[in-house]
Amino acid sequence: MQHSLTLSFSADRPLTGEAVLPGDKSLSHRAALFAALAEGVSVVDRFLVSGVTRAMLNALTALGVAWRLEENRLTVPGVGLHGFTPPTAPLDCGNSATTIRMLTGALAAAGTPCVLDGSEGLRKRPMDRITEPLRAMGVRISTPPNHCAPITLAARSPDVPLRAQAYTLPVASAQVKSCLILAALAADGETVLREPGPSRDHTERLLASMGADIRVCGPEVRVTPLARPLAPLALTLPGDISSAAFLLVAAALTPGSTILLRDVGLNPTRTGILDALREMGADLTVENPQTAAGEPVGDLRLTAAPLQAVRVEGERVVRMIDEFPVFAIAACFARGVTEVRDAEELRYKETDRIAVLCAELRALGARVEERRDGFMIHGGSLRGGVCEAHGDHRLAMSLALAGLAAPEPVSVRHAEILNESFPDFVTQLRALGATVAEIRG
Ligand code: S3P
Description:
- By secondary structure, this protein is α/β, with parallel strands linked by helices.
- It has 13 helices and 24 strands.
- The protein has helices at residues 25-37, 51-62, 97-110, 128-136, 174-184, 202-209, 241-253, 272-280, 315-319, 324-332, 355-363, 393-402, 425-432, and strands at 5-10, 16-20, 41-45, 68-70, 73-77, 91-92, 114-117, 141-142, 151-153, 166-168, 191-194, 214-217, 220-223, 234-236, 258-265, 283-292, 295-303, 311-312, 337-340, 367-371, 374-378, 385-388, 410-413, 435-440.
- The longest helix is centred in the N-terminal third of the chain and has 14 residues, at 97-110.
- The model has no long low-confidence stretch (mean pLDDT 97).
Protein backbone atom coordinates (compact mmCIF):
# COMPACT_ATOMS: atom_id res chain seq x y z
CA MET A 1 0.00 0.00 0.00
CA GLN A 2 1.27 3.48 -0.94
CA HIS A 3 1.55 6.07 1.85
CA SER A 4 0.05 9.49 1.33
CA LEU A 5 2.69 12.02 0.26
CA THR A 6 2.63 15.77 0.82
CA LEU A 7 5.12 17.59 -1.40
CA SER A 8 6.57 21.04 -0.89
CA PHE A 9 9.06 22.55 -3.35
CA SER A 10 11.24 25.62 -3.03
CA ALA A 11 14.15 27.09 -4.98
CA ASP A 12 17.07 28.47 -2.99
CA ARG A 13 19.26 28.64 -6.09
CA PRO A 14 18.96 28.36 -9.88
CA LEU A 15 18.28 24.95 -11.40
CA THR A 16 21.24 23.70 -13.42
CA GLY A 17 22.54 20.52 -15.01
CA GLU A 18 21.39 17.75 -17.30
CA ALA A 19 18.62 15.19 -17.02
CA VAL A 20 17.59 12.10 -18.95
CA LEU A 21 13.84 11.65 -18.85
CA PRO A 22 12.09 8.29 -18.46
CA GLY A 23 10.80 6.69 -21.68
CA ASP A 24 7.68 8.11 -23.29
CA LYS A 25 4.44 6.91 -21.67
CA SER A 26 2.38 6.79 -24.88
CA LEU A 27 5.11 4.90 -26.70
CA SER A 28 5.65 2.51 -23.75
CA HIS A 29 1.95 1.54 -23.80
CA ARG A 30 2.01 1.04 -27.55
CA ALA A 31 5.30 -0.84 -27.62
CA ALA A 32 4.08 -3.34 -24.98
CA LEU A 33 0.71 -3.95 -26.63
CA PHE A 34 1.88 -4.03 -30.25
CA ALA A 35 4.80 -6.32 -29.32
CA ALA A 36 2.22 -8.71 -27.81
CA LEU A 37 0.29 -8.65 -31.11
CA ALA A 38 3.43 -9.41 -33.16
CA GLU A 39 4.88 -12.82 -33.96
CA GLY A 40 8.43 -13.16 -32.58
CA VAL A 41 10.26 -11.67 -29.61
CA SER A 42 10.39 -7.87 -29.20
CA VAL A 43 12.95 -6.00 -27.11
CA VAL A 44 12.08 -2.47 -25.99
CA ASP A 45 14.67 -0.39 -24.13
CA ARG A 46 13.96 2.67 -21.96
CA PHE A 47 10.46 1.36 -21.28
CA LEU A 48 8.65 3.57 -18.75
CA VAL A 49 8.06 1.63 -15.54
CA SER A 50 5.20 3.43 -13.76
CA GLY A 51 1.69 2.90 -12.45
CA VAL A 52 -0.12 3.24 -15.77
CA THR A 53 2.31 1.12 -17.80
CA ARG A 54 2.17 -1.57 -15.06
CA ALA A 55 -1.60 -1.62 -15.68
CA MET A 56 -0.96 -2.45 -19.34
CA LEU A 57 1.64 -5.11 -18.48
CA ASN A 58 -0.58 -6.76 -15.86
CA ALA A 59 -3.48 -6.87 -18.32
CA LEU A 60 -1.18 -8.51 -20.88
CA THR A 61 -0.17 -11.12 -18.27
CA ALA A 62 -3.85 -11.92 -17.72
CA LEU A 63 -4.16 -12.39 -21.50
CA GLY A 64 -1.36 -14.98 -21.58
CA VAL A 65 1.56 -12.75 -22.67
CA ALA A 66 4.80 -13.78 -20.91
CA TRP A 67 6.68 -10.43 -20.97
CA ARG A 68 9.83 -9.86 -18.92
CA LEU A 69 11.13 -6.62 -17.44
CA GLU A 70 14.79 -6.14 -16.50
CA GLU A 71 15.29 -2.57 -15.27
CA ASN A 72 13.95 -0.59 -18.24
CA ARG A 73 14.29 -3.34 -20.86
CA LEU A 74 10.99 -4.99 -21.76
CA THR A 75 11.10 -8.31 -23.61
CA VAL A 76 7.82 -9.54 -25.09
CA PRO A 77 7.26 -12.87 -26.82
CA GLY A 78 4.40 -11.95 -29.17
CA VAL A 79 1.27 -14.10 -29.37
CA GLY A 80 -0.05 -12.73 -32.70
CA LEU A 81 -3.24 -10.81 -33.50
CA HIS A 82 -5.52 -13.70 -32.48
CA GLY A 83 -3.34 -15.29 -29.79
CA PHE A 84 -4.68 -13.87 -26.50
CA THR A 85 -5.94 -16.36 -23.90
CA PRO A 86 -9.43 -15.36 -22.69
CA PRO A 87 -8.91 -14.01 -19.14
CA THR A 88 -10.63 -15.69 -16.23
CA ALA A 89 -11.41 -12.42 -14.40
CA PRO A 90 -12.07 -8.80 -15.45
CA LEU A 91 -8.91 -7.06 -16.72
CA ASP A 92 -7.86 -4.36 -14.26
CA CYS A 93 -6.69 -1.34 -16.29
CA GLY A 94 -6.01 0.66 -13.10
CA ASN A 95 -6.05 4.40 -13.75
CA SER A 96 -5.03 4.03 -17.37
CA ALA A 97 -7.43 5.23 -20.07
CA THR A 98 -4.79 4.50 -22.72
CA THR A 99 -4.70 0.87 -21.54
CA ILE A 100 -8.46 0.31 -21.51
CA ARG A 101 -9.13 2.09 -24.82
CA MET A 102 -6.25 0.57 -26.81
CA LEU A 103 -6.72 -2.91 -25.33
CA THR A 104 -10.41 -2.83 -26.22
CA GLY A 105 -9.45 -2.22 -29.87
CA ALA A 106 -6.89 -5.04 -29.81
CA LEU A 107 -9.31 -7.45 -28.11
CA ALA A 108 -12.05 -6.53 -30.58
CA ALA A 109 -9.64 -7.42 -33.42
CA ALA A 110 -8.68 -10.66 -31.67
CA GLY A 111 -12.28 -11.64 -30.89
CA THR A 112 -11.28 -12.46 -27.28
CA PRO A 113 -14.24 -12.43 -24.86
CA CYS A 114 -13.50 -10.39 -21.75
CA VAL A 115 -14.45 -7.64 -19.32
CA LEU A 116 -12.23 -4.54 -19.04
CA ASP A 117 -12.44 -2.55 -15.83
CA GLY A 118 -10.34 -0.16 -13.74
CA SER A 119 -10.11 2.19 -10.79
CA GLU A 120 -12.95 4.34 -9.51
CA GLY A 121 -11.41 7.27 -11.45
CA LEU A 122 -11.21 5.28 -14.70
CA ARG A 123 -14.84 4.20 -14.26
CA LYS A 124 -15.84 7.86 -14.63
CA ARG A 125 -14.23 8.34 -18.03
CA PRO A 126 -16.37 8.16 -21.18
CA MET A 127 -16.13 4.95 -23.20
CA ASP A 128 -18.93 5.58 -25.73
CA ARG A 129 -16.31 7.30 -27.86
CA ILE A 130 -14.90 3.81 -28.56
CA THR A 131 -17.91 1.53 -28.06
CA GLU A 132 -20.10 3.32 -30.64
CA PRO A 133 -17.70 3.15 -33.60
CA LEU A 134 -16.66 -0.40 -32.60
CA ARG A 135 -20.31 -1.46 -32.63
CA ALA A 136 -20.63 -0.02 -36.14
CA MET A 137 -17.78 -2.38 -37.13
CA GLY A 138 -19.79 -5.36 -35.83
CA VAL A 139 -18.13 -5.69 -32.41
CA ARG A 140 -20.49 -7.01 -29.73
CA ILE A 141 -19.66 -4.69 -26.86
CA SER A 142 -21.55 -3.23 -23.91
CA THR A 143 -21.14 -0.90 -20.93
CA PRO A 144 -23.42 0.14 -18.06
CA PRO A 145 -25.98 2.87 -18.97
CA ASN A 146 -23.48 5.64 -18.04
CA HIS A 147 -21.27 4.52 -21.01
CA CYS A 148 -18.26 4.01 -18.73
CA ALA A 149 -16.23 0.92 -17.70
CA PRO A 150 -16.66 -1.97 -17.15
CA ILE A 151 -16.66 -2.80 -20.86
CA THR A 152 -17.84 -6.28 -21.88
CA LEU A 153 -16.70 -7.81 -25.16
CA ALA A 154 -18.32 -10.96 -26.61
CA ALA A 155 -16.34 -13.69 -28.36
CA ARG A 156 -15.97 -13.63 -32.15
CA SER A 157 -14.41 -16.28 -34.38
CA PRO A 158 -11.18 -15.12 -36.08
CA ASP A 159 -12.78 -16.33 -39.37
CA VAL A 160 -15.42 -13.61 -39.14
CA PRO A 161 -13.86 -10.21 -39.99
CA LEU A 162 -15.09 -6.91 -38.59
CA ARG A 163 -16.80 -4.42 -40.95
CA ALA A 164 -14.53 -1.77 -42.44
CA GLN A 165 -15.94 1.76 -42.11
CA ALA A 166 -15.30 5.41 -42.82
CA TYR A 167 -15.55 7.24 -39.50
CA THR A 168 -14.99 10.82 -38.41
CA LEU A 169 -13.95 11.18 -34.77
CA PRO A 170 -16.07 13.87 -33.05
CA VAL A 171 -13.02 14.94 -30.96
CA ALA A 172 -9.34 14.59 -31.79
CA SER A 173 -8.17 11.67 -29.63
CA ALA A 174 -5.20 9.39 -30.14
CA GLN A 175 -6.67 6.84 -27.76
CA VAL A 176 -9.85 6.53 -29.81
CA LYS A 177 -7.96 6.62 -33.11
CA SER A 178 -5.57 3.90 -31.87
CA CYS A 179 -8.41 1.70 -30.65
CA LEU A 180 -10.10 1.90 -34.07
CA ILE A 181 -6.83 1.36 -35.99
CA LEU A 182 -6.24 -1.83 -34.01
CA ALA A 183 -9.78 -3.09 -34.68
CA ALA A 184 -9.34 -2.20 -38.37
CA LEU A 185 -6.45 -4.67 -38.62
CA ALA A 186 -9.11 -7.43 -38.50
CA ALA A 187 -11.68 -5.77 -40.82
CA ASP A 188 -12.96 -6.93 -44.23
CA GLY A 189 -11.58 -3.96 -46.17
CA GLU A 190 -9.96 -0.53 -45.87
CA THR A 191 -10.98 1.57 -42.84
CA VAL A 192 -10.79 5.36 -43.18
CA LEU A 193 -10.55 7.48 -40.02
CA ARG A 194 -10.77 11.27 -40.01
CA GLU A 195 -9.84 13.53 -37.12
CA PRO A 196 -10.78 17.14 -36.40
CA GLY A 197 -7.23 17.89 -35.18
CA PRO A 198 -3.71 16.45 -35.17
CA SER A 199 -3.70 14.01 -32.22
CA ARG A 200 -0.46 12.10 -31.52
CA ASP A 201 0.41 9.69 -34.33
CA HIS A 202 2.63 7.18 -32.48
CA THR A 203 0.31 4.27 -33.32
CA GLU A 204 0.47 4.98 -37.04
CA ARG A 205 4.28 5.24 -36.99
CA LEU A 206 4.90 2.20 -34.80
CA LEU A 207 2.45 -0.20 -36.49
CA ALA A 208 3.72 0.86 -39.94
CA SER A 209 7.28 0.08 -38.77
CA MET A 210 6.04 -3.43 -37.87
CA GLY A 211 4.73 -4.01 -41.39
CA ALA A 212 1.08 -2.89 -41.10
CA ASP A 213 -0.34 -1.06 -44.13
CA ILE A 214 -1.31 2.30 -42.60
CA ARG A 215 -1.26 5.46 -44.68
CA VAL A 216 -1.72 8.98 -43.37
CA CYS A 217 -3.01 11.61 -45.80
CA GLY A 218 -3.55 14.92 -43.97
CA PRO A 219 -6.34 14.44 -41.44
CA GLU A 220 -7.13 10.97 -42.78
CA VAL A 221 -5.71 7.60 -41.69
CA ARG A 222 -6.28 4.61 -44.03
CA VAL A 223 -5.85 1.15 -42.54
CA THR A 224 -5.72 -2.07 -44.60
CA PRO A 225 -6.43 -5.36 -42.76
CA LEU A 226 -3.32 -7.23 -41.70
CA ALA A 227 -2.10 -9.49 -44.54
CA ARG A 228 0.89 -10.95 -42.64
CA PRO A 229 1.87 -11.04 -38.94
CA LEU A 230 3.28 -7.89 -37.34
CA ALA A 231 7.09 -8.03 -37.11
CA PRO A 232 8.62 -7.80 -33.63
CA LEU A 233 10.14 -4.56 -32.32
CA ALA A 234 13.76 -3.80 -31.44
CA LEU A 235 14.00 -0.20 -30.28
CA THR A 236 14.94 2.32 -27.62
CA LEU A 237 12.15 4.70 -26.72
CA PRO A 238 12.71 8.47 -26.58
CA GLY A 239 12.29 10.44 -23.36
CA ASP A 240 8.79 11.64 -22.51
CA ILE A 241 8.16 15.23 -23.61
CA SER A 242 5.19 15.40 -21.22
CA SER A 243 7.51 14.64 -18.28
CA ALA A 244 10.15 16.99 -19.73
CA ALA A 245 7.53 19.77 -19.59
CA PHE A 246 7.65 19.71 -15.75
CA LEU A 247 11.42 20.22 -15.70
CA LEU A 248 11.21 22.91 -18.37
CA VAL A 249 8.61 24.89 -16.45
CA ALA A 250 10.55 24.40 -13.19
CA ALA A 251 13.64 25.95 -14.80
CA ALA A 252 11.59 28.68 -16.50
CA LEU A 253 10.19 29.71 -13.09
CA THR A 254 13.55 29.81 -11.32
CA PRO A 255 15.64 32.87 -12.28
CA GLY A 256 19.19 32.13 -13.40
CA SER A 257 18.42 28.51 -14.37
CA THR A 258 19.78 26.65 -17.40
CA ILE A 259 19.00 22.97 -17.91
CA LEU A 260 19.64 20.43 -20.66
CA LEU A 261 17.27 17.50 -21.18
CA ARG A 262 18.72 14.72 -23.34
CA ASP A 263 16.95 12.52 -25.93
CA VAL A 264 13.44 13.90 -25.62
CA GLY A 265 10.77 12.76 -28.12
CA LEU A 266 9.85 15.72 -30.35
CA ASN A 267 7.00 14.32 -32.41
CA PRO A 268 5.29 17.43 -33.87
CA THR A 269 1.91 16.22 -32.56
CA ARG A 270 3.32 16.61 -29.01
CA THR A 271 5.38 19.82 -29.13
CA GLY A 272 2.65 22.42 -28.49
CA ILE A 273 4.09 23.09 -25.01
CA LEU A 274 7.48 24.03 -26.51
CA ASP A 275 5.79 26.51 -28.86
CA ALA A 276 3.79 27.96 -25.96
CA LEU A 277 6.82 28.35 -23.67
CA ARG A 278 8.84 30.01 -26.46
CA GLU A 279 5.97 32.39 -27.18
CA MET A 280 5.91 33.23 -23.45
CA GLY A 281 9.56 34.29 -23.71
CA ALA A 282 11.45 31.21 -22.49
CA ASP A 283 14.82 30.77 -24.16
CA LEU A 284 14.33 27.19 -25.40
CA THR A 285 16.37 25.50 -28.10
CA VAL A 286 16.62 22.03 -29.64
CA GLU A 287 20.11 20.56 -30.02
CA ASN A 288 21.34 17.38 -31.64
CA PRO A 289 18.15 16.56 -33.60
CA GLN A 290 17.91 12.92 -34.68
CA THR A 291 15.41 10.19 -35.48
CA ALA A 292 15.02 7.26 -33.07
CA ALA A 293 12.34 4.57 -33.00
CA GLY A 294 10.73 6.28 -36.01
CA GLU A 295 10.24 9.47 -33.98
CA PRO A 296 12.04 12.84 -34.03
CA VAL A 297 14.23 13.19 -30.92
CA GLY A 298 16.54 15.93 -29.63
CA ASP A 299 18.08 17.60 -26.58
CA LEU A 300 16.21 20.55 -25.07
CA ARG A 301 18.09 23.45 -23.51
CA LEU A 302 16.13 26.02 -21.51
CA THR A 303 17.47 29.19 -19.96
CA ALA A 304 15.11 31.09 -17.68
CA ALA A 305 13.82 34.47 -18.87
CA PRO A 306 10.84 36.56 -17.74
CA LEU A 307 7.55 35.04 -18.98
CA GLN A 308 4.64 36.86 -20.61
CA ALA A 309 1.01 35.81 -20.89
CA VAL A 310 -0.16 34.12 -24.12
CA ARG A 311 -3.36 32.81 -25.65
CA VAL A 312 -3.65 29.11 -26.53
CA GLU A 313 -6.47 27.94 -28.81
CA GLY A 314 -7.26 25.94 -31.94
CA GLU A 315 -4.92 23.19 -33.15
CA ARG A 316 -2.25 23.86 -30.54
CA VAL A 317 -4.62 22.60 -27.83
CA VAL A 318 -4.45 18.97 -29.00
CA ARG A 319 -0.66 19.25 -29.51
CA MET A 320 -0.26 20.01 -25.77
CA ILE A 321 -3.37 18.26 -24.42
CA ASP A 322 -1.58 16.79 -21.36
CA GLU A 323 0.45 19.91 -20.57
CA PHE A 324 -2.27 22.36 -19.50
CA PRO A 325 -1.79 21.83 -15.75
CA VAL A 326 1.93 22.67 -15.97
CA PHE A 327 1.33 25.40 -18.54
CA ALA A 328 -1.16 26.96 -16.10
CA ILE A 329 1.57 27.14 -13.45
CA ALA A 330 3.87 28.95 -15.89
CA ALA A 331 0.95 31.30 -16.63
CA CYS A 332 0.53 32.05 -12.90
CA PHE A 333 4.01 33.61 -12.92
CA ALA A 334 3.82 35.31 -16.33
CA ARG A 335 3.15 39.01 -16.85
CA GLY A 336 -0.43 39.62 -18.00
CA VAL A 337 -3.55 37.50 -18.47
CA THR A 338 -3.21 34.07 -20.10
CA GLU A 339 -6.19 32.66 -21.94
CA VAL A 340 -6.97 29.07 -22.98
CA ARG A 341 -9.85 28.32 -25.37
CA ASP A 342 -11.13 25.34 -27.43
CA ALA A 343 -9.98 22.97 -24.68
CA GLU A 344 -13.25 21.45 -23.42
CA GLU A 345 -11.66 17.99 -23.84
CA LEU A 346 -9.68 18.76 -20.66
CA ARG A 347 -12.88 18.09 -18.74
CA TYR A 348 -12.62 14.36 -19.66
CA LYS A 349 -9.09 13.64 -18.42
CA GLU A 350 -7.97 12.08 -15.09
CA THR A 351 -10.08 14.82 -13.50
CA ASP A 352 -12.17 17.61 -15.00
CA ARG A 353 -8.91 19.47 -15.53
CA ILE A 354 -10.61 22.83 -16.10
CA ALA A 355 -12.74 22.80 -12.94
CA VAL A 356 -10.19 21.13 -10.67
CA LEU A 357 -7.22 23.16 -11.88
CA CYS A 358 -9.12 26.43 -11.44
CA ALA A 359 -10.29 25.42 -7.95
CA GLU A 360 -6.80 24.43 -6.78
CA LEU A 361 -5.15 27.54 -8.23
CA ARG A 362 -7.76 29.63 -6.43
CA ALA A 363 -6.94 27.74 -3.20
CA LEU A 364 -3.38 29.06 -3.69
CA GLY A 365 -4.70 32.61 -4.08
CA ALA A 366 -4.52 32.88 -7.88
CA ARG A 367 -7.08 34.95 -9.80
CA VAL A 368 -8.60 32.54 -12.30
CA GLU A 369 -11.73 32.61 -14.46
CA GLU A 370 -13.27 29.34 -15.59
CA ARG A 371 -14.91 28.94 -19.01
CA ARG A 372 -16.72 25.96 -20.51
CA ASP A 373 -13.81 25.41 -22.93
CA GLY A 374 -10.86 26.84 -21.02
CA PHE A 375 -9.76 29.39 -18.44
CA MET A 376 -8.06 32.74 -17.86
CA ILE A 377 -5.21 33.21 -15.40
CA HIS A 378 -4.04 36.57 -14.04
CA GLY A 379 -0.28 36.34 -13.71
CA GLY A 380 1.32 37.37 -10.42
CA SER A 381 -1.70 36.60 -8.23
CA LEU A 382 -0.74 33.13 -6.85
CA ARG A 383 0.47 33.42 -3.22
CA GLY A 384 0.78 29.90 -1.79
CA GLY A 385 -1.03 27.54 0.60
CA VAL A 386 -2.22 23.95 0.72
CA CYS A 387 -3.77 22.21 -2.29
CA GLU A 388 -4.92 18.72 -3.38
CA ALA A 389 -3.85 16.39 -6.20
CA HIS A 390 -7.35 14.86 -6.64
CA GLY A 391 -5.92 11.57 -7.95
CA ASP A 392 -4.44 13.36 -10.98
CA HIS A 393 -0.69 12.75 -11.49
CA ARG A 394 -0.15 15.78 -13.71
CA LEU A 395 -2.03 18.09 -11.35
CA ALA A 396 0.09 16.86 -8.41
CA MET A 397 3.40 17.60 -10.15
CA SER A 398 2.26 20.91 -11.63
CA LEU A 399 0.95 22.32 -8.36
CA ALA A 400 4.17 21.29 -6.61
CA LEU A 401 6.19 23.40 -9.06
CA ALA A 402 4.27 26.52 -8.00
CA GLY A 403 6.32 26.37 -4.77
CA LEU A 404 9.46 27.25 -6.75
CA ALA A 405 8.19 30.75 -7.50
CA ALA A 406 5.35 31.54 -5.06
CA PRO A 407 5.93 34.17 -2.35
CA GLU A 408 4.65 31.71 0.31
CA PRO A 409 5.12 27.91 0.64
CA VAL A 410 2.95 25.54 -1.45
CA SER A 411 2.06 22.05 -0.15
CA VAL A 412 0.40 19.44 -2.38
CA ARG A 413 -1.50 16.73 -0.56
CA HIS A 414 -1.88 13.18 -1.93
CA ALA A 415 0.95 13.78 -4.39
CA GLU A 416 1.91 10.05 -4.42
CA ILE A 417 -0.31 9.76 -7.50
CA LEU A 418 2.65 11.15 -9.52
CA ASN A 419 3.99 7.55 -9.59
CA GLU A 420 1.40 6.84 -12.27
CA SER A 421 3.55 8.53 -14.92
CA PHE A 422 6.81 9.99 -13.51
CA PRO A 423 8.14 8.11 -10.45
CA ASP A 424 11.51 9.92 -10.76
CA PHE A 425 9.96 13.40 -10.61
CA VAL A 426 11.31 14.36 -7.17
CA THR A 427 14.72 12.75 -7.71
CA GLN A 428 15.22 14.53 -11.03
CA LEU A 429 14.20 17.94 -9.69
CA ARG A 430 16.46 17.50 -6.65
CA ALA A 431 19.36 16.59 -8.93
CA LEU A 432 18.81 19.87 -10.81
CA GLY A 433 18.96 21.80 -7.53
CA ALA A 434 15.36 22.16 -6.30
CA THR A 435 14.70 21.85 -2.58
CA VAL A 436 11.94 19.32 -1.93
CA ALA A 437 10.26 18.43 1.36
CA GLU A 438 8.36 15.13 1.42
CA ILE A 439 6.01 14.27 4.26
CA ARG A 440 4.71 10.69 4.25
CA GLY A 441 1.95 9.25 6.34
C1 S3P B 1 -2.70 9.42 -25.07
C2 S3P B 1 -3.57 10.28 -25.68
C3 S3P B 1 -4.18 11.44 -25.01
C4 S3P B 1 -3.45 11.79 -23.72
C5 S3P B 1 -3.08 10.59 -22.90
C6 S3P B 1 -2.24 9.62 -23.69
C7 S3P B 1 -2.18 8.29 -25.84
O1 S3P B 1 -5.53 11.14 -24.72
O2 S3P B 1 -4.22 12.67 -22.96
O3 S3P B 1 -2.35 10.97 -21.74
O4 S3P B 1 -1.17 7.68 -25.43
O5 S3P B 1 -2.76 8.00 -26.89
P1 S3P B 1 -6.68 11.40 -25.84
O6 S3P B 1 -6.23 10.70 -27.02
O7 S3P B 1 -7.93 10.80 -25.32
O8 S3P B 1 -6.76 12.88 -25.97
